[in-house]
Write a structure and sequence with these properties.
With 179 residues, this protein is an all-alpha fold. 97% of the residues lie in helices and 0% in strands. The protein is built from 2 helices and no strands. The longest helix is centred in the middle third of the chain and has 134 residues, at 2-135. The protein starts with a helix and ends with a helix.
Length: 179
């Protein structure tokens, strides 16, 4: 029985030693699990924060995108408005050009009428000169005749300018219509 007790004691000591070793191993595993759990908790919190940062960045980009779209839309409206103003300005300039051509044409017609009246007056003056030739007032007739010739040359030059301008008038009208 002593042997049996001794063997039982040895078994108990061996079991106790095994249990102590297993307890230490379990405590080490438990500490390792706690450490791993803490690491996982920290990693999870870090990933949650990273995910929140990405969500914030996406929200910010979406807001920025909306702002950019609004700015592009506003710029497109400004461009359309400027184009409309430009078209209106071109139309106004064309209208003004037509009015200017009409004024020039009227002025040319008026100048032609004045030139015609001056020619008629010159003809009347020449009739007076012819009457003076018959009288010849102390040599003054020659002075009057030279004065009338100078006046005739100026009138003819004036008429040539008017005729030239009048001939150019259809070209001006065509240019304005083309514009």
């Amino acid at each position: 029985m002593l042997n049996k007790m001794k063997k039982t004691k040895e078994k108990i000591a061996s079991a106790k030693s095994t249990l102590v070793t297993e307890k230490k191993n379990l405590q080490t595993i438990h500490a390792q699990q706690k450490s791993d759990q803490t690491k996982l908790t920290n990693l999870s919190a870090s990933k949650q924060q990273e995910l929140k940062n990405y969500e914030d960045l996406i929200a910010h980009n979406e807001a920025t995108s909306d702002e950019l779209e609004a700015e592009i839309s506003a710029q497109e409206k400004r461009v359309a408005s400027a184009e409309e103003l430009s078209r209106q300005d071109v139309k106004r300039q064309q209208r003004n050009s037509r009015q200017l051509v009409q004024i020039v044409v009227q002025a040319i017609h008026h100048q032609i009428q004045e030139a015609t009246q001056q020619i008629l007056q010159t003809v009347e003056i020449q009739e007076v000169v012819e009457q003076f030739q018959a009288v010849d007032l102390h040599g003054h007739f020659r002075d009057i005749q030279l004065y009338l010739q100078d006046m005739d040359i100026e009138v003819l030059n004036f008429i040539r300018v008017l005729i030239f301008q009048h001939q150019q008038e259809p070209l001006l009208l065509q240019q304005v219509q083309v514009q």
